[in-house]
Amino acid sequence: MSEPDIQLSICIPAYNRGATLPQLFDSIIAELARVDDPDRVEVVVSDNASADDTPAVVERYRERLPNLTYVRQAENIGADRNYLAVVEPARGRFCWLMGSDDKVEDGALARVLRATEQWSDTAGFCVNLAGYDSTFSRRIIMREAFTLDSDRLFEGADAIFQEFGPYYGYLSGQVIRRDLWNEVVATGEHLNFLNAYVHVFVIGRMIQKCPRWGYLHQRTVGWRSGNDSFIADGWYKRTSLDVVGYHDISTALFGAGSKTANVMRDRIAAVHAFTCLWTGKSQGQPAATLRKGARLLTRYYWRSPVYYYKLLPWILVPRPVARGAYLSYMKGVRPWVNAIRMRRNRKLADW
Questions:
Q1: Confidence of residue 1 (pLDDT cuts 50, 70, 90)
Q2: What pTM did the predictor assign?
């Protein structure tokens, strides 16, 4: 009997996610029931030596997910190597990289399958997200990742990375062509970037080899807020992951001082670095830790205009003032911002 013709592999790297995997699996099962040929979809889980009940959870779902491949690592190999490991046994033409704490939105699987057919000659495509609270019980209002209000195909490696580079860090937003991914991984160059964003580097090389990339504007994956596993290593380490990781990857791909590297620098500074600084300053990080973080931000962003109008003012603001500004924003300004975002969100994509 011949093996099924797999079009899409949903690839889930997992570590201690016994509490969140059921919601993801249930969402996949519901979506499989809506597609014409569910046998064209498989689920691959790479368990990074979890210490919780992840293996038991997977086993409970084995009958309901017949095209399920479960690989358990003998020891913790780190997040990056687990991202790579989950693609290795996959058989699909495309792989949807999926965070183990996220979920698939209604109608999403059919949309993704259609896109893999429509954009079969691309390196891959991004899918838009819907934000939820930490329990998936309600939608939350969040900053839109894109202002695009329709599906689009982009061409040119620089243009693609300038548009999507920061978003590549969000694992569940990426659907990649497996043969091209494997071609890049075979070089071993990615092993220099085991910085929590190895997939960003691999995707960057993929689009340089095949400079065509798509975007699905409808909300396709559900993102769970308040569940950042990397924050457990501390505020400074989490900040440096974004600052150093994205810098090293973008300069390796496009060259230090290139337009694309500078665009990436400014976008990471304006959103990722600023959010880390805002959070650390307003929520009580020790002064010594904040000074260390300020030195990091200055080292990497002093050439960026974003540093002077957005980062430096918050570096200089005393912690009590920052805390007061944070509380004022949360109580007084944020409701207005949320109302504006709500109206904008409804124009850009289905709420």
A1: very low
A2: 0.93
